[in-house]
Amino acid sequence: MTAGPGDYATDDATSADLQIAETISFVNRHSDFMQIAYKSSDIQTIVNSNKLAVVLGVEVDNIGNLNTLGRPPQNSEIAAAVAHLYDEGVRYVFPIHLLDNQFGGTAAYQSLMNYSTRREAGHWWNLVCADDPSIGYQFTPQLNSFFATAGVFVKLGLNPDWASIFSSPPSYPTCGQVNSLGLLPAGTTAIQEMMKRGMLIDIDHMSQNSANSALTLAQDVPAGSWPSGYPLMSGHNAVRGPGSNERSFTAAQYQSIGNLHGMAGVGSAGVDAYTWINEYLAVFQAMGGNAAAGFGTDTDGLAMGMPTSTEVDLLQNPFNPQGSKTCLANCGHPPIQYTSSFPMSNLGGVSWDYNLVGVAHYGMLPDFLLGARNAPNGADLIDNNLMYGAQYFFDTWQMVENKSADISAVGCASNGICCGRLDNHGQCAGQCVAENASCSGVTGIQCGSNQKCCGTLDSHDNCSGQCVASAASCSQ
Description:
Layout: H1 12-29, E1 34-36, H2 40-48, E2 52-54, E3 57-58, H3 75-88, E4 92-93, H4 112-121, E5 127-129, H5 146-156, H6 160-166, E6 177-179, H7 185-196, E7 200-201, H8 208-219, E8 234-237, H9 251-259, E9 264-267, H10 273-286, E10 293-296, E11 345-347, E12 350-352, H11 354-357, H12 365-373, H13 378-384, H14 389-404, E13 416-419, E14 431-434, E15 451-454, E16 466-469
Parallel strand pairs: 1-2, 3-4, 4-7, 8-9, 9-10
Antiparallel strand pairs: 5-6, 11-12, 13-14, 15-16
Helix pairs in contact: 2-14, 3-7, 5-6, 10-12
């Protein structure tokens, strides 16, 4: 997002590359219990080995630093940016995050991000009155104090222009507001490039207009070897309620995701177990009842962990000698019971009691679920839906991979060859090159199940040559 003097990395592409490399390095250092999955079948192999399957994902504001071009990106530049992530092992992508970018509009729900959009994209959000009466968000000026202005100078340097610009945001209509910017042509191209590679596409953080366009784009993928439509994901969200904002999806949007066999992670950042179960039930019902949902913790330091909702208000908190309450809301529920088969978490010589501190670290997610099972509908949703989420995710990923072969790119000319898969209609889902050219420079292409690779396969099963029918000769 916004970086200033002394920060590194100062751009999204470098930051993403560093984090991807560090994640891969971390997983490799702990290969005794985790492994990266680069395709759906890897999940089965990894889980059958009693290891944690890790899927690499990217959630940044500007993929490939395309915002620095000063113009709309060309299709080849978009394809290169997507291919770069794929070649690094990324399989899960957010095309749009907290700011408007070259792909489209972001959901308006945090006013500070309007300032970041102004700096990074060169424009303020175009906020208009929402048609949905449940939208209650209204932009609130953020930099209207000496300390806020001083923070701008500290972060961005002694440039009076920024302070002047930031102190004069647009005047917006007094109403529930949404970002009018939808999916741009570059965003359509980017999503299609991701589809060609069988990537999992998350539409959270999109403006309502952007999300609806993405859903339509996915619904329009024709049937081929698999049914029509391309699954889309929602990683950390909830059903929109009164006084909410466009960041939350409507029940109709969730239904569309469910109809596409997409998957939803129910947001849990800062949410107690009882509230989360109610939100989980709303998402499950909106998706049609046949989908499985999952966790959308988003716990990263900015998004907080889950607080307790048990009787901590009646207990002495050993981390606070004054004994003040640590339960924030929805308190008074029965505490979870620790036993020899479900012991209290112990880390660094400290025992962590969920009843007192909530989810203090990721290892306490089971404690949270134990508390959630005590809520009305909790046991049924957890035992009969959440616990099937891993299988549903695998099925969705497998469908996405197979649908990638049905994404009709272009039919290669009679004097060209296809570097990649051919769908059932003979269309190339990879890249067309001249007949006398080589596919060695074409990356991120996997051959279909009824094809073989005339070349070498890398560690991700990408073919360095041409994909041909299984019975064909590579000399053709």
